[in-house]
Specification:
Helix content: 55-70%
Distance between the termini: 60 Å
Keywords: Oxidoreductase, PQQ biosynthesis
CATH architecture: Up-down Bundle
CATH superfamily: Heme oxygenase-like
GO molecular function, one term: pyrroloquinoline-quinone synthase activity
Number of strands: 0
Strand content: under 5%
Catalytic activity: 6-(2-amino-2-carboxyethyl)-7,8-dioxo-1,2,3,4,7,8-hexahydroquinoline-2,4-dicarboxylate + 3 O2 = pyrroloquinoline quinone + 2 H2O2 + 2 H2O + H(+)
CATH topology: Heme Oxygenase, Chain A
Structural class: mainly alpha
Largest sheet: none
Number of helices: 11
Protein name: Pyrroloquinoline-quinone synthase
Pathway: Cofactor biosynthesis; pyrroloquinoline quinone biosynthesis
CATH class: Mainly Alpha
Shape: globular
Amino acid sequence: MSDAQSRELFEERLREIGAQRYHDKHLFHDMLHGGACTPDQVRAWVINRYYYQSHIPLKDAAFMSRVEDPALRRAWRSRIEDHDGTQENEGGIQRWLRLADAVGLDRDYVASERGVLPATKFAVDAYVRFVRDKSLLEAVAASLTELFAPKIHSERIAGLLRNYDFADDSALSYFRNRLKEAPKDVAFGLDWVLGHADTAEKQDAAAQALIFKTDVLWSQLDALHSAYVSPGRIPPGAWQPGDAGSAASGS
């Protein structure tokens, strides 16, 4: 077995995965940030991304249920609170529902998850199972897409504000808050992975876990593009433009 890379080289390897495979390079994001999405395409993105947002605390709870080290559980706990909220913090899920309000969706419909694309469900559910079943190292490494999130959040805020009438500070509060929350999570997660991936085999497993997570994110945008952009074949049961999910329809 070959020797493990140094911490510095292994970190470069992880960052290169993001440079090549992160979903900021997907055509749908180019459309979204550039103002090329129709209102209904934006709504479809909000509906489907909610499924991912709502399952992040489930993923983190599954991870914590396996952790025997109290220090690691304490460090990880804030991730659930960031999304579910606390008495002092509205939480990411509620902020996402504010975005749903802003784009003209009925928040109860979005929260019901009834209109989510099948491929979105498969991808997100696979991520939750991955974190539940794989090693702790692989589970933490999969979260390291957060390394690349601040850039996409900054681009999204700028692009949405520039191109869409619904965009304001309230509607985009989820992304602004993640600019503050994500660096804390990244610093801890990256240091933990670099410290625990101390063999070539473990480094390979961690790198593959990060690749898996980029595939999860990419596949969600593939599903959106296929259903709502080209060729526009929406699977049975998924949200249809004009359905009850639109607040304007009177739901």
